[in-house]
Amino acid sequence: MRQDEWIIKENIHQLRQLMSDQNLQLLPDYEQRIQVLRELDFIDDSSRVQLKGKVACEIHSADELVLTELILDNVLAAYEPEEIVALLSAFVFQEKTDTVPTLTPILKAGMETIIAVSEKVNAIQTLHQVILSADDSNDFVSRPRFGLVEVVYEWARGMSFKNITDLTDVLEGTIVRVITRLDETCREVKNAARIVGDPELFGKMQKCQEMIKRDITAVASLYM
What we know:
mainly alpha
């Protein structure tokens, strides 16, 4: 019995030591990420959460740093609901496509703004040596993020599902999943608008949800 007790205690000690070593290994990465948040004004010098940080806490379905920058810089306010939701599709779509979307000048400008903001965030993360995994990367240039902007834009404007599938080589199931995830992203941005006290953006995001949820819950009707 004493031998068994000693073995259990020794195992506990080794596990605690291992956990401690792992924590020490993660500490530099933690400090580097804290520096990024400070430089972006998500937290202050005392690590108190600022307005940007509170907004970022509402974002779970997309890159919270880039999207928060767009919200607080009042970028989305310049667009109509159908344009906003089309641009937000870049935050949830990352699959390969050979189709080059046809974009309006306004959507092109929005795409360029998103790329510029993401590059600013990436530059700060690189400066502080934050290493991101492929899943965490907010690369909006080399990855096919904007492949469904035209599709979502036309869907929000009322085009039938059958017709929007002709605009892309992306599978129908993927389009449905992107639109479903977009509803969640719109809800999060709407909550962020409430936090910053922006009733205009709140209303636009509510309109975005209404536009894309058209028949989306009844999958069979999408093909009619």
